[in-house]
Amino acid sequence: MTVTLLDAILFALMLVSALLAMVRGFSREILSVISWLVAAVAAFLFYKPLTPYFAEYISSDTVAMAASAAAIFLVTLIIVSYITLRIADFIIDSRIGALDRVLGFVFGAVRGLLLVVVAMLFFNWLAPENQPEWVANAWSKPYLDNFGKQLVAALPENPEQIILEKIQGTSGEPATDTPPAPEEPGSVEGAIEDSSGTEPTQPQ
Description:
Layout: H1 5-24, H2 26-55, H3 61-92, H4 97-126, H5 133-136, H6 141-154, H7 159-168, H8 188-196
């Protein structure tokens, strides 16, 4: 294994990502990710109540649903991003600002590595054989493949099916409330007691 163009690309992406994250700060990078996650969760949870309003102007139910989710996502992202930006600026200007930038550098380097790992996964899928020498003989190729296998192993099976089931609401059949079956009376006297509400009289 020798140092090839792939190794240079990996190093360049990690360095650029690390420098950008250092300038922005670790807190801003993390809060930015949180903002996107919150917006995605909000769109997933609240798109159904808003869909009928879009359906009044959009004939396609699928497009109306997508428009509802997109609107909630964008509005939530703008609001949460504004809040997190204020929090990040406060942290950077505080005494721990230097530490925040150092952690941001590390975070950016890891993010750059993850981007190359994902790109290598797609490349191996598209061209499993006859790869260029600068890819196949790269020093970092075995490490990238190993990280990619670990990443795939951490994912659930059939993630696209899970996402479709969540969106379409078909992940489980709705439970039907069936009334419980009436209990069998233990005896004829018990049946008479249940129907009349009085205890049967014992013969003298």
